[in-house]
Specification:
Length: 105
Amino acid sequence: MGAPPAGQQNQAPFWVQLFPLFLLFVLMYFILIRPQQKKAKQQQQMMAAIKPGDKIVTTGGIVGVVIAVKEGTLSIRSADTKLEILKSSVAQVTERADQSTTSNS
């Protein structure tokens, strides 16, 4: 009565077997998915806040000043060249237009 027969083994409940898989999914969410979502949200906010006079750097390495903002594109001036680029190609805003006017005063 004390030992189970040789052909039978005690199996853990179904939820106990799925717990490591669930734990792995939660861990992957906090390590991979959530930081990417936060970065994408920050990028979206940065693109929405771009206005004329801001200094930007594109993903291709072009440094310029925003002249005009359209729905999906920006007109920028870099040296003696005027370019029209996609908003999504902006890597970073190096200087805001309102910051440069307040620092000159």
